Amino acid sequence: MCIEISIWNELDLATQGTLLERPALQTDAKIRDQVTPILDQVRREGDVAIRRLTQEFDNADLSSLQVSSDEIDAAIAGLDPSALAAIELAIGNVRRFHEQQVPQSIAVETMPGVVCERVCHALNSVGLYVPAGSAPLPSAAIMLSVPAAIAGCPVRVLCTPPRPDGTADPAVLAAASMSGINDIFKIGGAQAIAAMAYGSETVPKVQKIFGPGNAWVTCAKTLVSAARGGAAIDMPAGPSEVLVIADGEASAEFVAADLLAQAEHGRDSQVILLTTSATLAGDVQTQIQAQLQSLSRADIARDALLNSRIIVVDTVDTAITVSNRYAPEHLILQIANARTALENVRNAGSVFVGPWTPESVGDYCSGTNHVLPTYGYADTYSGLGVDQFMRFMTVQELSQDGLANISVAVITLAGLEGLDAHAAAVSRRLESSV
Fold first, then answer.
1. Is the separation of the CB atoms in 398 and 426 below 8 Å?
2. What fold is seen in the domain 28-75+122-233?
3. 50, 48, 385, 36: which is closest to 196 by C-alpha?
4. CA-CA distances (angstroms) from residue 418 to 72, 407, 428?
5. What are phi and psi of 19, to 5 degrees?
6. What does DSSP assign to residue 426?
7. What percent of the chain is helix, strand and coil (3-state, nearest 5)?
8. Domain spanning 5-24+238-367 has what CATH number?
9. Average pLDDT estimate for 317-339
10. Which DSSP string do the residues of 324-383 spell out, in sequence order?
């Protein structure tokens, strides 16, 4: 199939807006009706419900929900040395980048005798979800586990779905263990989110849940984040997406490869090309058709391409304006002077600069985190980082002179708001010191 080519400046505003719409998510009400009973069962029955639901949805009869140390050792021993080397490289790069993100506490004397501080602490307990639906994701285990370890969260729980034989994916187990996770559970889907949000006899309750997943997992995360006694979550999530900005000098082969790399994620993924060259647009169409023939997930990619767009714009500046409006999860700049153009990019989860920077490197091992806001949320949310595994607390300490220095302003502002007790909490202290 061919992605239809559209000419941006020939479209009216309404059509332009339609062109940038994401694929419709699956019916929220239907999925919510399916997920809610799962959450309720796990909350009421704990491990019994988890085992029953695991048998129902994953066709796995588990004697133990937790992955044993022997299972982890066997998983690592069974992997090819080249796979272990790739995992080690990815962990090292992700660790090096994320170690530089650790926030520092600050202390500022805002006026004589008035000291204000901001201190940071790791969250006490976090839950990490690594899906394993159409493809296991050891890279997700790395992206979640490494910053959690750097932040120093004392309790780090990871859930991933079991296979029918009752084992978890060996590469996921190896990546999680090598990234510092000891508590790994063979639980998938909405029941995994419920187990981490509410706790069970086996699974510790956590404060915050991280990680990607399908529509049921996403719905479960949303529901537990709003429920009393539930857990916070990392960010809104939707289908994966990429937007490529390319000029006439870009390689059609590279551009097509980048579009297909994202399209193979899922049938509801979306890929968009914004280009200043009608010739390149046609060449990319041709390259997509040729490259599809060799892909093992070509059927999935073809379905994703039904939701995708090739748009010809008049200038790179227009392309960046359109991209900022779309706010893509991934943005690839295959244009001349890409580093300079980056200055005008405002809304994107992660940016890939220049012809030698495919999005794949960010997915796996460049060092940045691949857990990113999707579905337009990149205009308000950031990708995953160490700070999201921490909480921040402000502190203030005043001397007697400091309170005297600030007292007039406090009492005046309290009067403006009609809060006499606020003013008295200051004035009584000053009067007692006379």
1. no
2. Rossmann fold (3.40.50)
3. 50
4. 63, 16, 17
5. -65, -30
6. H
7. 50, 15, 35
8. 3.40.50.1980
9. 97
10. HHH--SEEEEESTTHHHHGGG--S-SEEEESTT--HHHHHHTSSS------TTGGGT---
Contact 214, 240 (CB under 8 A): no
Question: Is residue 27 predicted with pLDDT exceeding 90?
Answer: no
**Cα gap 198→228, rounded to integer Å:** 10
Residue 329 falls in the annotated catalytic set: yes
Tens of pLDDT, residue by residue over 145-164, are: 999 999 999 999 999 999 99
Out of 71, 241, 264, 329, which one is annotated catalytic? 329
Determine the Cα–Cα distance for residues 134 and 249; give it in Å rounded to an integer.
36
Structure tokens at 245: 């900005």
Q: CA geometry: angle at 43 spanning 39 and 47, to 5°?
A: 105
Express each pLDDT in 377-409 by its tens digit. Answer: 999 999 999 999 999 999 999 999 999 999 999
**C-alpha torsion sign, points 75, 164, 214, 135:** positive
Q: Which listed residue (264, 330, 359, 370) is catalytic?
A: 330
CA distances from residue 336 to 114, 248, 276 in whole angstroms, order as listed: 52, 9, 12
Average pLDDT on 99-113 reads 97
Tokens read off for 396: 């203030």
Annotated domain spans of the chain: 5-24+238-367, 28-75+122-233, 399-432
In whole angstroms, give the CA distance from residue 224 to residue 74.
Answer: 34
Q: Exposed/middle/buried for 182, CB within 10 Å: 0-12, 13-18, 19+?
A: middle
Is 330 among the residues known to form the active site? yes
DSSP string, 215-250: HHHHHHHHHHHHSTT--EES----S-EEEEEE-TTS
Beta strands in 123-240 (DSSP E): 125-129, 155-160, 183-186, 208-210, 232-233
What pLDDT score does 277 carry? Answer: 98
CA 117 to chain centre: 29
Q: CA 369, 266, 376, 3 torsion: positive or negative?
A: positive
